[in-house]
Please model this.
Amino acid sequence: MRKVVFLFVFFINVSVFAQQEPNLSRYKTTKEKLKVWLQYTSEVLNTEDYPKLIIAAQKGIALSKNHPAYKSRFYFLKGNAYEFNNNQNKNAMVNYELALHYAKKARHLKNETSSLMRLNYIYYALHETSKSKDLIKYVKKVVDTTKSTYSKAYLNGSIAEYYLNNAKYEIFIDYQLKAITYKKLLPKNTIETENIGISYSQIAAAYTKMKQYNKAIEYLNEAKPYVKQSPYVSAFICNYYLQCFVPLNQPDSIQKYYRLIYTYPSVKDSLFLNLSFANRSMSDYYINQGKTAAAYHYAQKAILFGKKSTDEDIIMEANTVMGRVLYEKGEYKKAIETLTLASKNALKYDKESYVMINKKLSQSYSALGNWKEAFRYNEIYSKSNDEMMQESAKQSIANAEAHYQNKTKGQRIKNLSTQNTIKNIQINDARKQRVYLISGLVLVFIIGLLLFRQSQIRKKNNQNLQVLNQELDEANKIKARFFSILNHDLRSPVSNLIHFLHLQKENPELIDEAAALRMQTKVITGAENLLSSMEDILLWSKGQMENFTPHPQKVTIEVLFEETEKHFSSNENIQLSFENTENIILNTDENYLKTIIRNLTGNAIKALEKTENGKIIWKAWQENNQTYLSITDNGPGGSQEKFKALYDDSEVIGIKSGLGLHLIRDLATAINCKIEVCSKSGLGTTFTIIFQ
Model:
């Protein structure tokens, strides 16, 4: 019957549907492929196509070569396939052990917990007693050290099942109640809720084994609210009620729960298991009532549904009850055939059934006068019954010893309590002496705490002051930048305007009427450009006062060149030209780049003050996925020392010396570009802006 308990835990998660095998070539990384393949393999498990599951899991194992967590999961699913496919438990054990190995390697506690749970059952099914003991020692160690509520919940359940297998029901109940306590702490969902109900029903099954049927019913009543949403589990719960009400001889309750089982929808295997289980209980009831015809009818139905379930345990139990019915009917030959068939798997699944089968075989052969076989089966019955009774006696002795130890400990506690009363009087005297000392220490502590608090407040105020100083320093730097921008962008147009006004005032006779008109027009145009530039700069400055940060957007180089040409249109003696054959568009801050271009152009104009036929050429081009802007003049050039301010933060600067180069450097850094300079004496200078 223990396998039935596991099966209804398993069936609550089954939803059968066809799943298309994923095309792994569509996924780039191994992790993506593993994630998709694990999902597919899990869905194959749900379809109960176990040969296909073995193939899918094996492919997952090969795919997860360097991923132990995934490899653990695929070995676990392969173990599921062997376990649920005609109980290939040895193959299942090998794969579960590998799953546990790789789970430990990956330090994946959830995979480790799953593997330990299944190995606990498999070792029991294969009678691997030594491995089972070692496993439970390890499980207890994990439970004592882990902080995972999930692992504590399910591994306490595994320890409980170990003691259930060994008929140590009281220890089983203790661990199962611990498991329930932790399960109630897990996030609420349908599966976790149902698992709480299943755990209660397992405790009920243990009380049934101990023939404490009323206690079993109490725990079944506890289980019902947790499984009401699951027809699969509810059907099994009804069968456990039947197991209790049959020996209690309560026909109304027996009929109620028998009929109720037929009302629950269920997946195929679960349905047949439940129906075989229920009809077997009904057959037991009518045998006890001496109604062999009714008992035979229900035993036939138990065998029919047992065969449809294809489950060896269920078929064995059905044949056992049929053998008993046939014996009561006096059909001893048929009883022997049926009981012999049942005996093949009886010891494997249920020792009590094995004892019952051999007893009935001995009685059947005795009724036929075959004393030799009757004696042989009676010996088997006596031996197995003695072993079972010895186990029961050991448990009873263990319980009695525990009771005696508890009683002895209780007396010792009482004696110690008297001694403690005397010591408490002595302790109270010592306590009074300590009060004054502690009071003094508390006072010292409070004074220290106040001093510490005062120190922390002072430290916090200093930190706030430091932040304010940093903000003030940053504000001063921003102000210096804007003064620099105003100085460099407005100096040249204002200088040209003042030059013309001085010329007109001091030497009017040098200007003829046509030249005067031309220069007036140019001055007006220059003044208008100056006003536009001032407005542009001041509006930008207003928006940048708090945070001097760039705002990237699409910028057309051609527009910037046109604005630059217009800004410096009052310079007559210098030829300013622009080359932008590729019509380049950049994603950068327009105002930052415009300021850099104006400053570089202003610096070039200043460098050409004493050069005849001065030329300035702006170029824009793209090369190797990078954008370049360059300005070239044919001025006198200079040494690298002259341009040191462009690279060195520590260079001493002044309004007319290197402030423009510092500004250019800071703005270029802000918009993520680099400026290189190449200057040759007597040939001129080229500044190149490289956008990263």
